[in-house]
Design goal:
single chain, 49% helix, globular, 443 residues, Rossmann fold, alpha/beta
Length: 443
C-alpha cells in the first residue's frame, strides 16, 4: 500500500531535508509552502501523514491541522504531526495547541526518528486495512494517491432572506454590524475568527460574508482565499472586506485581482456597509458567480448593479479619491445616532466607554518613550482603534489612526508627525465621548 505524505512548511531548508529523507525511502511525498496550498492538496489527495510547521504565514499550522481534520468525514483522517523548530541558543518556541496534532516533532530531528514514525504509521494502516472485510469500502489502500477524494454533500436548504456572515475578532464591532444588517432585513450570523468563519461557510450557504482583515489564526485575506479555493463557484458567497486601512490591504495583494468583491472602509460607517451588502445580495441572486472585480474598483461594481458607489473609494495606489473631505469631522453625529436606533442606549454607552479607554491607553503609549520590541503591539492597538472609531462615527480619529499605521509601515520619517496628529485626534474624541455620555445620562 501507499504511504502518502504531505510536508507543509515555508522554510526551504527544512522542506528539502524532510523531502530528501522521505523520498529516499520511496514514499509518496507532496509539499506545500503555506496553509492554503496544503488545504487545497489535502482536499484532493488522501494523505496518510501530514507534517505541518506550526508557524506558517497567514494560516497558522494549528488552524491548518484543524481544518484537515474537518475536511472529509467519509475517510479516516491523516496522522497529523506538528513541526516545531529549535535553533541553537534560541529560547524554546511556545508550545503548539494540545489536541490538534497527534504527534509533535522538534526540527531538526534524527532521520531515524522520522522514519520510525512513518514505519509505525504504515504498520498501523496495514493492520486497519486487514481488519476491514476485503479492504476499505472505497478501496483507498489500492487507489492511486493522486485520485480525487469523494466529498460529502450536505443539503443546507435555501432561504429567501439574505444570509450574511459577519467575521470580526472585536465583539463590539460585531454587535454594531450585526444590529445594522438585521435592521436592513438580513439573517445575520457571526464568527470571531477566520477558522470559525471558514467552518461555518463550508457548513451552510451564505449570500455575503463580511470579513475583518486583521484576525488571529487565519486572517481575513487568507480566509477569503480559502473560500475561493475550496468552495465550488455555485456555492461561493460574495466577499466584502471591512477594514480600517484599505490601502494596506492592497499592498498585501500579490496581483492586480482581489479575492474580495468589494472593500469598505470602517470609517464609512455601517450605513455604507449595509448598502454594500444589499447590492451584493442583489447581484449574486441575479448573476451566477463569475470573475471577481478588480480590487478597489467599486465603480465597476456599481455600474454592474446600476447604482452609484457609496462611501469613500480608494484608487489602486491607496490614495483617497477626490470626493473625500480633506478634514473629516471629529464626530459624525448622524452615524452615531443611527447606531443608537439599532442598539440599546446602555450598549452604545458601553461601546463609547471602551473606545475612550482604548484611546486613553494608546495616547499614553504614544507620549511615552518608545519601548523596543513593542512596535507591533502598538500598531495592533492603533489598527483596532481605527476600526472601532470609524464604525461609531469618530471620523477624525479613524482617519488619523489609519494615517499613523501607514506611516509606521511605509514612511518611518513621517511617523513622529503622524503620532502627534493621532494624539490630537484622540484628545478631541475623548472630549466628544465625555460630552455624549453626559448627554445620555441626562436624557
Amino acid at each position: 500500500m501507499y504511504i502518502r505524505i504531505l510536508v507543509v512548511t515555508d522554510d526551504a531548508v527544512q522542506l528539502q531535508a524532510l523531502v530528501c529523507c522521505l523520498a529516499a525511502q520511496r514514499y509518496f511525498v507532496e509539499t506545500a509552502a503555506d496553509g492554503i496550498e496544503a488545504l487545497r492538496k489535502a482536499r484532493s489527495i488522501a494523505f496518510d501523514l501530514v507534517l505541518i510547521d506550526g508557524r506558517l504565514p497567514e494560516v497558522e499550522g494549528a488552524a491548518v491541522a484543524s481544518l484537515i481534520q474537518d475536511m472529509a468525514p467519509r475517510r479516516g483522517r491523516p496522522h497529523l504531526v506538528g513541526l516545531s523548530a529549535a535553533l541553537p541558543g534560541a529560547p524554546a518556541p511556545p508550545p503548539l495547541p494540545d489536541g490538534v496534532f497527534d504527534t509533535m516533532l522538534t526540527i531538526p530531528c534524527p532521520e531515524e526518528r522520522l522514519l520510525c514514525l512513518v514505519e509505525r504509521l504504515g504498520r498501523q494502516r496495514r493492520d486497519d486495512a486487514a481488519l476491514a472485510c476485503d479492504g476499505s469500502p472505497d478501496g483507498s489502500e489500492n487507489r492511486d494517491p493522486r485520485a480525487p477524494i469523494q466529498q460529502d454533500v450536505v443539503d443546507a436548504g435555501t432561504s429567501s432572506c439574505a444570509r450574511v456572515l459577519v467575521v470580526d475578532d472585536d465583539a463590539r464591532l460585531r454587535d454594531v454590524v450585526q444590529a445594522a444588517l438585521r435592521e436592513a432585513g438580513c439573517d445575520v450570523a457571526i464568527a470571531g475568527d477566520g477558522l470559525a468563519a471558514f467552518r461555518e461557510i463550508a457548513r451552510a450557504p451564505y449570500d455575503v460574508v463580511v470579513l475583518d482583515v486583521q484576525m488571529p489564526q487565519i486572517d481575513g485575506l487568507a480566509t477569503a482565499r480559502l473560500v475561493l479555493d475550496v468552495l465550488s463557484r455555485a456555492d461561493r458567497p460574495r466577499l466584502i472586506a471591512l477594514t480600517s486601512a484599505p490601502d494596506l490591504l492592497r499592498r498585501r495583494e500579490s496581483g492586480t485581482t482581489s479575492v474580495f468583491d468589494e472593500i469598505i472602509s470602517k470609517a464609512n460607517g455601517v450605513a455604507a456597509l449595509a448598502a454594500s451588502v444589499r447590492r451584493s445580495v442583489a447581484y449574486r441572486r441575479r448573476n451566477p458567480p463569475r470573475d471577481l472585480i478588480c480590487i478597489g474598483d467599486l465603480g465597476s461594481l456599481s455600474r454592474l448593479l446600476g447604482a452609484e458607489p457609496l462611501g469613500v473609494r480608494c484608487d489602486m495606489a491607496g490614495q483617497p479619491s477626490q470626493g473625500e473631505a480633506a478634514a473629516p469631522p471629529v464626530l459624525d453625529e448622524a452615524a452615531l445616532e443611527s447606531i443608537g436606533k439599532l442598539l440599546p442606549q446602555a450598549v452604545v454607552a458601553g461601546h463609547l466607554r471602551l473606545l475612550a479607554r482604548a484611546g486613553g491607553a494608546l495616547l499614553g503609549r504614544l507620549r511615552a518613550p518608545p519601548v523596543p520590541g513593542e512596535e507591533a503591539d502598538l500598531l495592533n492597538a492603533t489598527h483596532d482603534l481605527a476600526g472601532s472609531a470609524g464604525l461609531l462615527g469618530f471620523r477624525l480619529l479613524s482617519a488619523r489612526s489609519a494615517q499613523y499605521e501607514r506611516a509606521s509601515l511605509g514612511a518611518p520619517a513621517e511617523r513622529p508627525g503622524a503620532a502627534r496628529d493621532l494624539g490630537e485626534a484622540i484628545e478631541l474624541a475623548l472630549a466628544a465621548i465625555q460630552g455624549r455620555l453626559l448627554a445620555m445620562a441626562d436624557a
